[in-house]
Amino acid sequence: MSIATPPVAPATTTQQLLHFDDVAMTFPNGTTALSGVNLTVNRGEFVTVVGPSGCGKSTLLRIASGLTPATEGVTEVDTTRIGYVFQDATLLPWRDVQSNVELLAELNGKPKKERAATAKEAIDLVGLTGFEKHLPKTLSGGMKMRTSLARSLTLDPELFLFDEPFGALDEITRERLNDELIKLFTEQQFAGLFITHSVSEAVYLSTKVVVMSGRPGKIVDTFPVEFPFPRDPEIRFTAEFAELCGKVSHALREGHH
Amino acid sequence: MTTTPPAPPKNRTMMRPATITRSRTKTPTWVPPVLVALGIIAIWYFVSYVVLDASRRFLLPPPHEVFTQAFFDPTVFGDIMVALGRTAIVALVGLAIAIVLGVGWAVAMSQARWIERSTFPYAVILQCIPILALVPLIGFWFGFDYPARIIVCVMIALFPMVSNTLFGLQSVDKGQRELFQLQKAGRWTVLSKLEFPAALPAIFAGMRISAGLAVVGAIVGDYFFRRGEPGLGSLISNYQSRVQSAELFAAIITASLFGVLIFVIFGWLGKRVVGKWYDFSAS
Which ipTM did the prediction report? Predict the structure, then answer.
């Protein structure tokens, strides 16, 4: 949340937060999920990875977060504040929204007062104020995902990893959450690495779209996205947006054997 | 279970379907089982008075005689209540030990793979042994009073606690585990903040089964030993050998009601503790 206020243009000071250098992943059963991946994510960048199912996109996040070590290559992570949003909301059903959002701070041994305050702020950021006492089973899919997002936000992440977080949501909820995510990104300027199936979601959210091929996952193309932040939802209906989506889709199809 | 009441219809024309569903759900849930009970009593009377002739009626005395000759007879009723008290103590102490032992064992197995590998087969074997065959042996070793009865009770009630708790601890969602792993949470934290709460519904389901079994165990041990202070088991055995059929039925009904009561209590307790976030009817 602490955005340094540099005297010159902020975009020129690049701070690398994640770097994959020739990273490969071969599972014990012999399947190669990733091969030769080179990718850097700097602060203020929102990189989206699109690719066919099973191309190892999620493995990339697991390597970045340290859940699974890569079998080859070097992975540099230059921060300890890593947010990870899973495909499912992974809320603890016996805890209410407030207590779910407090969980990570609690696991990190933060005092009660501090974590209550951080949680309140995060709940506010995702627009769930008033739902603190609700149990997950009473929430809609979108609200569960918001809670999950708020939980990660309490870590004040410098590197934010998203593993197809909105894949299971309906179109309208997904679009709304995309806008909120863009708002968070514009305000907090973390480094984002976002996995998705959806080409339009990828183009809409990110500063850079990375296209991966089918197994073994390789980066086949990279497209910078120049639309300014915060993004106007209307850009989705422009010709430039459609053209870029077309290019990404083409690259996807070519990489898919 | 948790059906929300239908929203009041906004306009009159919408009334019809709403009232139809309402009248269908209007029959209180207790009515059908009560009807079945009345049916059973009717059949009971029929068998007592029509199928059996008077000389063989002792095989199934009519329902009201169970009351006039047993429940309303102060001596018989007193005997049954004292016996019930003793059986209840054995069942509850046995159940408590089974719960503590079962949960403890399961937690140990969930924490160390080698404990699971080396001891879980014996939990299964314990389940497969016909405990009735062991009862005389337990009597030899531990005498025929409370300790032996409690041991029989624990042996019968233990397995559902072990298997349910273990299943609950191990079926924690992978994503939730990784959430804890990412924060580098220790074993104890994962157990106390994730695995154990997640296992609570399974633990309560196990408790309900074990509670019923504990009652069976308390009666079986006593029935076979027939020594020391008589519980319901000895009493049933006595009534049986003296062909006091009304008293026998009264004792059996009491034992059954006690079993149902303890089952209901644990069901209620489970709902009370985890019902807020866990839907038992779904499993």
Answer: 0.86
